[in-house]
Amino acid sequence: MRTIQVPASRNYTVWVDGGLLSQAGIMIRALCPDGIRVAVVTDSNVGPLFADRLQEVLRAEGFVPSVFTFSAGEAAKSGETYLALLEYLAQMRLTRSDVMVALGGGVTGDLTGFAAATYLRGIACVQIPTSLLAMVDSSVGGKTAINLKAGKNLAGVFYQPSMVVCDVDVLRTLPQEDFADGVAEIIKYGMLKSVALLDQLMVRDLREDPTEVIAQCISIKRDVVERDEFDTGERQLLNLGHTIGHAIEGCSGYQISHGRAVAIGMAMITRGAVKAGFCPSTCLTRLEELLARYNLPSHCGFTAEELLPFALGDKKRSGDTLTLVIPTGIGVCKLHSIPVEELGQWIAWGLES
Fold first, then answer.
1. What number of CA atoms fall less than 13 Å from residue 255's CA on the CB side?
2. Which of 24, 26, 20 is nearest to 211 (CA)?
């Protein structure tokens, strides 16, 4: 078992191993010795697979669990679902000694974390990610949010979980396309911080045993969050590919998944970095080889004119400037501020072959 301690405004442990879902009741009881109720939040895809099993192990530890299920998909990460969840928590009479559990992927984790941060001004939240993407990225670090019509993740707070339980066995049920979405985020970590991680991705079968790679990504994120929890400097690097990626998601009406959008976003910003002279072409070649290996796209069918309005709503915009994350080499990136009027040019560069 791999255990990773995350020192932040709330210190917590991330557990990575097989079979942890069966131990979740014991782990949550140790975390919340006086708790009675557990509100499990899940979606219509994950709930039928794992919610009954989780409730069983929670009852064995004396908890009274209940399940809030929402329709799967990015569109459900909305104000309407968020308010419905808050009303559910109030109806179930959860108190500050009780706990919420996010059982699912990134949408579930973001939504549950935001509700936990704001219900009764904050109750404990345990993340049990069931997708590779959520395990390596969104379940750790305390970013919680919902989407607005103007863009993705525009309403949210920093609120660290109380514990993260990554049971790698649940990934066996994950469709190949969803698994690849998680690999996009793993490639992101390699592009940012680790040539060795990129080398591993070229030779190993992640589906066979993803534990070590998951732990590596979490450790990289842990180190960044420890130095910049509230996203004022270095942590912005973790948004590699996300400015354009979020625009692609928005343009598609969220029909293009987050992982695939980030994959395209990374490729586009790397093309732009090559065009602007910040990055050697060998970096782009390596990235495109990795994306192809995992059947991830590197191009999209939208125009710069279609993408630009969504990209201008990015959270990293400050006044008339926008901070891009650009590769300068394999395993090395930097923050680069540009006037917002230059963003269209960067997107156009990224769309070139």
1. 5
2. 20
Cβ atoms within 10 Å of 341's Cβ, excluding its own? 9
Residues 5, 156 contacting (CB under 8 angstroms): no
Query: Do 292 and 240 belong together in one domain?
Result: yes
- If asked whether residues 169 and 216 sit together in one domain, one would say no
Query: What is the spatial distance between Cα 167 and Cα 314, in angstroms, rounded to a whole number?
Result: 33
The answer to whether the predicted template modeling score (pTM) of the entire model surpasses 0.85 is: yes
Whose tokens are 């998680």? That residue is 182
CB-count burial class (<10 Å; 0-12, 13-18, 19+) for 132? buried
Helix, strand, coil % over all residues of the chain, rounded to 5? 50, 20, 25
Question: Helix axis angle, 258-275 relative to 176-193, nearest 10°?
Answer: 30
Please say if the pLDDT value at position 166 is more than 90.
Answer: yes
How many domains does the chain fold into? 2
Cα 293 to chain center, whole Å? 22
Cα 82–Cα 236–Cα 211 angle in degrees, nearest 5: 75
Task: Give the confidence band of 107 by pLDDT, cuts at 50, 70, 90.
Answer: very high
* Rounded CA separation 158/210 (Å): 28
Range of the domain at 138: 2-173
Structure-token pair, residue 34 = 């006086």
